[in-house]
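Reviewer 2 asked us to include a model.

Predict the structure of this chain.
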Amino acid sequence: MSQPKQSPTLLLAPGSWHTPASLIYLQTALQKAGYPAQTIAHPTNGADPPTKTLTDDTTNLRHTLSHLIEKEGKDVVLIAHSYGGLVISNAAEGFGKKDRGKQGLQGGIVLMVYMTAFLVPKGKSLFEVLGEYRPANMVLEGSYCHATSAKESFYHDLSPEMLAEAEAQLTHTCIGAYTESVNYEPWRDIPCAYIFCEEDRALGVPVQEMLVEMMRGSAPFPVLTGTLRASHSPFYSMPVETAEVIRYFVREVEGV
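Predicted model (structure tokens):
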């Protein structure tokens, strides 16, 4: 008798300034839906002195992926918010399920989910791509980068209680997260999906749509999309609905 198919492990990556605690409501919703779900922390968030870079975040995530995929043979879905999109893109190289299968290897990344997240072309940094359009709420102080106006930029649809919780968990990040280039475009090799947030004031819908079209221009797979009537932080304001969109993506990729 064949064994029942195991659900993939869902690995959540926060954005800049956010710790894994920010994703607890989404993580819980996914776990209640029957998926193993865990979060990672980016070394750039809260580093003091602020010397960590995108490379450190990438290495950290690749260590976790190596354990889940190479040691345990698991299928993995990477889910990233905002800046986390750069990290999962950079870290995914060599871990795609299809390419590993060709080598007779078990496990791999079956899906990349970008939750109102940044993507940049290979060889470019986020600051290079943003140029003069760098968000006004990104305030630099030497190598520190702080987020200001969090309510207006990230959380305008939260209750006062949830807003206080979200703001209390914010930290600084390091400029090196934004000045190093991304070295891999996973949408060329791995199925990808994007969650649009219609009320996002940090990463507007036209930019979100442009990023999806960039993927579609070179992706051999359909790029799945879902839409939420949410701010930049649906993991706080709509965790159950966000989890349902992710479940839809996973079912589509797995053919369930």
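The domain at 9-254 is CATH 3.40.50.1820 (Rossmann fold). The mean pLDDT is 96. We have added this to the supplementary material.
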